[in-house]
Recover the amino acids of this structure.
């Protein structure tokens, strides 16, 4: 149940794309690509993450769970790195995953946790700056 420190999204943010490139010559499996929509949750509704996509090359429960974990932790304000990412309130949102792409060798669960967190940060920045999403292209760092 949402508590008094939970805030809802001011508006929908659709088409948040985050892409992590594989490090050429590196051993870290950092490849992943996701597209998510963020919708305001009805009052009193907890955040949720729904998969409305066909994953490529095929569905992968571990990567879906890892992406959900990253999204939910970031919405809750848990495990945020850097002072600009920390919030005093949980954000309530319905998250719809539109696409998820992974590679047999070059992807890992931790990478999708990071992609989920980055997608939430981009959605919140879009609302704060009153703009449309910009694709995030990065190489996620794996601890």
């Amino acid at each position: 149940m949402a508590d008094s420190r939970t805030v809802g999204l001011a508006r929908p943010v659709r088409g948040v794309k985050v892409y992590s490139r594989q490090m050429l010559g590196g051993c870290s499996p950092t490849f992943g690509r996701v597209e998510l929509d963020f919708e305001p949750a009805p009052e009193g509704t907890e955040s949720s993450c729904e998969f409305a996509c066909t994953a490529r090359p095929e569905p992968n429960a571990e990567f879906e769970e890892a992406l959900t974990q990253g999204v939910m932790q970031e919405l809750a304000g848990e495990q945020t790195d850097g002072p600009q990412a920390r919030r005093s309130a949980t954000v309530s949102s319905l998250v719809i995953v539109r696409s998820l792409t992974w590679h047999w060798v070059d992807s890992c669960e931790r990478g999708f946790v990071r992609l989920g967190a980055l997608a939430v940060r981009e959605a919140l920045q879009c609302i704060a700056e009153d703009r449309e999403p910009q694709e995030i292209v990065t190489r996620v760092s794996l601890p």
The CA atoms of residues 16 and 133 lie 6 Å apart.
